[in-house]
Amino acid sequence: MAVALGRAVSGQVHKLEQALTAYGLTPTQYNVLRILNGAGPDGVHATDIGKRLISQGPDVSRLLDRMAEAGLVERERDPNNRRFVTARLTAAGRERLHETTPVIDAALREHFRGFTAAQLRTLLDLFPDPYGTD
User: Mean pLDDT: which of 5-14, 20-29, 48-57, 120-129 is highest?
Assistant: First the structure.
């Protein structure tokens, strides 16, 4: 049963990866764009981005480096503590998010089309957040 569930999840993630590849994004990068968009002009500290990611990754700094190189985010070091970096969405990042969101929304609707809202809620209740952020 566990293998079948793992394969089902992996298949869905693969479809999302394929949908985002055309836009030069990974699912994790798309997730960062969503996090930063929700934060508004104040941005988010890199450590908080790591805590909010759907898939926890070990190196948020390198992820933000790649996204900054692509012009999707900008980073600012705290002048009082250079270890703290605040990331913000650029205009290009906001545009990429707006063009990919309908694609992701359509893929997710397709993935879950056979489930009622109550069934999805039950699934979420059965699988507690492994990161303890619920």
Answer: 20-29
Give me the residue label for tokens 């070990």: 58
C-alpha 37: how far from chain center: 11
Residue 32 neighbours by CB under 8 Å, 6+ apart? 49, 53, 63, 64, 67, 73, 87
Give me the torsion for CA of 45, 62, 60, 5, rounded to 10°: 150
Domains of the chain, first to last: 2-126 (1.10.10.10)
Paired residues of 78 in beta bridges: 81
State both tokens at 60: 């948020």
pLDDT (0 to 100) of residue 35: 95
**CB-based contacts of 86: which residues, under 8 Å, 6+ apart?**
42, 43, 44, 45, 46, 75, 76, 78
End-to-end, the C-alpha distance of the chain in Å comes to 25
pLDDT band at 15 (very low <50, low <70, confident <90, very high): confident
Joined tokens for residue 13 = 């993630």
Task: Note the Cα 1 to chain centre separation in Å.
Answer: 27
